[in-house]
């Protein structure tokens, strides 16, 4: 029996399912699996581990698996494949040694420190400002305490021993100094509020640029394997969280320095009280660390579930039209609600612990403060004025101590987001697009010699493909579904490199040539080209500012879309985009053809660009291609005889091998696939 293939709806991954097919994309990780007969992790991972599955991608972009025998998938995994390595149930996990912990902490810091590198100067500025704020505040607090004591005792002036300093001021002068200090503190406070805000917004913009550049510069293989919604979630939620982390760190530096300054002031004023305060804070900080560790675990779950959720949201937008037409089925609804619920619990736990830890710190700290004061009053009952100042400074210092604790808690909450962002940037940066360093000459001849290709986790998709195409030829690419046509196109576009053999340009290895020049000279129209939100002119120009309005119009004429554009009230200024009904599918295809032609390419590749069009739209595109024939080299992937018979020669690919490369007329006589295609077409036309 021939194995069957079927596209898999994303929502299906969350419910029990039977059948000989399984998705390898858009599936969910199953935490906490223990059953040795199931593979924990994504189905993609399962496919890599399990010889029963072979992956492929359909023309519609779905990634499918072929199973040799019926199997069952449910939300916990994939039944029937052995776990590659089953950990021994008796082996107790080794407790990490303090050295391990230190090493891990250092490694984690080294990964995360780049996020803060650019902020270092401003963090130093914050530290300096906080030092000033701390000194001003402790002086002000001590002065208030002393003035209050003087007023209570009815003395004219203000006299006190402030550690090594002896204070002797008239009351008015003391009031004036206090007002100046209070205003100064307000000024420093404003700066302390501004610097972290600036830090955060700067970090957000820098990180967005860095992630975008890393993504754009990454090899296509990495981007093609990225699950939907991941990049969006990284760009939005993760970067926002990391920028908040930078702000939080700024507040932490500020609170920490102010705390230390106040503690030092307390040391100067009253040593025993200060010692007790320091010990109290350190003990508290250490006692609350386990809770903070738990918080970090919850935050990690929160980050992971958020990615899943973003993926679901992304998909909800993609299939909005179908859902509108078919209605949201209870199963789809249930799957989406499942995503919402999966985020809810980690969000609840994370928020609860994030609020609980600082609150606990404050409550316990106040209790310990009372105990500390009792101890101090017993030791130094005679120095009531300085004792009053110390009490106020201690209370204030505890507020900053609590802020430091909440900063630590908040950082725990955010670190998993930072780790994930660092992972993604590393993933993109470590797989850059390869580039050549030779200038690309005019392309006289493009060919392949013994080209093989295998996807990383899959079988060989192309085998020993050899052909050569002269400049100006129109070449069709035909073959059954899954035979490797789109993969061959990706190699011609240099999106993927052949795993064996060579793509040749004028007899030289294509990898030697600069990619930028390749991109300028080799254009592409995919099956479902995307319009960007903007005018028709923007869409044709597509971020190439050197293209003039005349170039845009010429390309639109060549693509047979000019007349349509001119019939719209705003002409080339008509706003189009993914969700604008202003253009039909055929017009969209021709706008994208114009986009491809606007850069005056030497090679144009169309991957089933007319397969979704009606006969009239297809005829208009063919008319456009007719005008290009002989001027540029054309590669046209198509299942339609109308498109293929227009070509000079057709490459017939079957099961990854080149079956024939000949003129349409000869293929009709000699090639079974082409002949069959012709018969089907004739039957359809006759029907
Ligand atoms: N990203 C991928 N990872 C693993 N295998 C893949 C991937 N993309 C495609 N394949 C496999 O490569 C084979 C060829 O796929 P390709 O999309 O090139 O075929 P095609 O001839 O263009 O098919 P169609 O006419 O249906 O679009 C398929 O069997 C598919 O399973």
TrEMBL record:
Question: Per the database record, which ranges form the ABC transmembrane type-1 domain?
Answer: 124-413
In the UniProt record, the signal sequence range is none
SMART domains, from UniProt?
AAA (SM00382)
PROSITE patterns under this entry? ABC_TM1F, ABC_TRANSPORTER_1, ABC_TRANSPORTER_2
Which InterPro entries does the record cross-reference, listed alphabetically? AAA+_ATPase, ABC1_TM_dom, ABC1_TM_sf, ABC_transporter-like_ATP-bd, ABC_transporter-like_CS, P-loop_NTPase, Type_1_exporter
ABC transporter domain location, by residue?
A: 446-680
Q: What is a single molecular function from GO for this protein?
A: ATP hydrolysis activity
Domain of life per record: Bacteria
Q: Where is this region: Disordered?
A: 1-37
Residue intervals passing through the bilayer? 123-153, 173-195, 245-267, 273-292, 352-375
- Annotated membrane topology: Multi-pass membrane protein
Assigned keywords, A-Z:
ATP-binding, Cell membrane, Membrane, Nucleotide-binding, Transmembrane, Transmembrane helix, Transport
Q: Name one GO cellular component term.
A: plasma membrane
Q: Name one Pfam family in it.
A: ABC_membrane
Subcellular location as annotated = Cell membrane
| The family this protein is said to belong to | Belongs to the ABC transporter superfamily. Lipid exporter (TC 3.A.1.106) family.
What name does this protein carry? Answer: ATP-binding cassette domain-containing protein
Q: Which organism does this record belong to?
A: Georgenia thermotolerans
Give the classification, highest ranks. Answer: Bacteria, Bacillati, Actinomycetota, Actinomycetes, Micrococcales
């Amino acid at each position: 029996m021939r194995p069957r293939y079927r596209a898999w709806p994303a929502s299906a991954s969350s419910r029990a399912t039977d059948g000989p097919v399984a998705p390898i994309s858009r599936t969910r990780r199953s935490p906490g699996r223990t059953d040795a007969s199931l593979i924990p992790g994504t189905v993609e991972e399962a496919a890599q581990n399990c010889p029963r599955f072979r992956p492929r991608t359909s023309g519609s972009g779905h990634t499918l698996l072929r199973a040799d025998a019926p199997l069952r998938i449910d939300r916990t995994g994939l039944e029937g494949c052995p776990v590659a390595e089953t950990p021994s149930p008796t082996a107790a996990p080794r407790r990490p040694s303090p050295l391990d912990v230190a090493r891990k902490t250092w490694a984690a810091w080294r990964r995360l420190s780049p996020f803060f590198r650019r902020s270092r100067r401003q963090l130093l500025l914050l530290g300096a400002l906080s030092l000033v704020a701390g000194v001003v505040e402790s002086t002000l607090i001590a002065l208030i305490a002393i003035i209050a004591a003087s007023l209570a005792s009815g003395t004219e002036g203000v006299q006190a021993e402030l550690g090594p300093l002896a204070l002797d001021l008239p009351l008015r002068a003391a009031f004036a100094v206090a007002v100046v200090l209070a205003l100064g503190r307000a000024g420093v406070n404003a700066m302390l509020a501004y610097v972290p805000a600036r830090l955060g917004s700067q970090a957000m913009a820098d990180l967005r640029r860095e992630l975008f550049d890393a993504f754009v510069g990454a090899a296509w293989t990495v981007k093609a394997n990225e699950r939907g919604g991941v990049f969006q979630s990284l760009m939005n939620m993760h970067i926002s969280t990391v920028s908040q982390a930078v702000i939080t760190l700024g507040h932490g530096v500020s609170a920490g320095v102010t705390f230390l300054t106040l503690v030092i002031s307390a040391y100067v004023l009253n040593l025993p009280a200060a010692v007790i305060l320091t010990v109290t804070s350190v003990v508290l900080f250490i006692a609350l660390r386990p809770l903070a560790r738990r918080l970090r675990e919850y935050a990690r779950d929160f980050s992971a579930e958020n990615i899943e959720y973003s993926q679901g949201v992304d998909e909800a937008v993609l299939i909005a039209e179908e859902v509108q037409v078919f209605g949201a089925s209870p199963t789809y609804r249930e799957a989406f609600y499942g995503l919402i619920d999966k985020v809810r619990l980690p969000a609840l736990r994370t928020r609860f612990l994030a609020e609980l830890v600082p609150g606990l710190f404050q409550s316990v700290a106040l209790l310990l403060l009372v105990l500390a004061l009792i101890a101090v009053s017993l030791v130094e009952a005679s120095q009531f004025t300085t004792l009053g100042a110390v009490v106020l400074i201690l209370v204030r210092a505890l507020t900053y101590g609590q802020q430091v604790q909440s900063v630590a808690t908040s950082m725990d909450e955010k670190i998993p987001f930072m780790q994930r962002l660092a992972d993604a940037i590393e993933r993109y940066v470590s797989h850059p697009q390869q580039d050549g360093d030779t200038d690309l000459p005019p392309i006289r001849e493009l060919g392949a010699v013994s080209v093989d290709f295998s996807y990383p986790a899959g079988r060989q998709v192309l085998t020993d493909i050899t052909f050569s195409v002269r400049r100006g030829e129109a070449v069709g690419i035909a073959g059954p579904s899954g035979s490797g046509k789109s993969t061959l196109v990706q190699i011609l576009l240099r999106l993927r490199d052949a795993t064996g053999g060579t793509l040749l340009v004028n007899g030289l290895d294509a990898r030697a040539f600069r990619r930028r020049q390749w991109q300028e000279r080799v254009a592409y129209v995919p099956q479902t080209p995307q319009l960007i939100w903007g005018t028709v002119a923007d869409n044709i120009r597509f971020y190439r500012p050197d293209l003039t309005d005349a170039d845009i119009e010429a390309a639109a004429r060549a693509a047979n879309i000019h007349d349509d554009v001119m019939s719209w009230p705003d002409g080339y200024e008509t706003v189009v985009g993914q969700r604008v009904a202003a253009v039909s599918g055929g017009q969209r295809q021709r706008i994208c053809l114009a986009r491809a032609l606007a850069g005056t390419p030497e090679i144009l590749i169309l991957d089933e660009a007319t397969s979704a069009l009606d006969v009239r739209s297809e005829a208009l595109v063919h008319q456009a291609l007719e005008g290009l024939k002989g001027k540029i080299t054309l590669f046209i992937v198509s299942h339609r005889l109308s498109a293929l018979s227009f070509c000079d020669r057709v490459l017939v690919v079957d099961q990854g091998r080149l079956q024939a490369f000949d003129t349409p007329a000869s293929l009709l006589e000699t090639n079974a696939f082409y002949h069959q295609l012709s018969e089907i077409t004739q039957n359809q036309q006759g029907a």
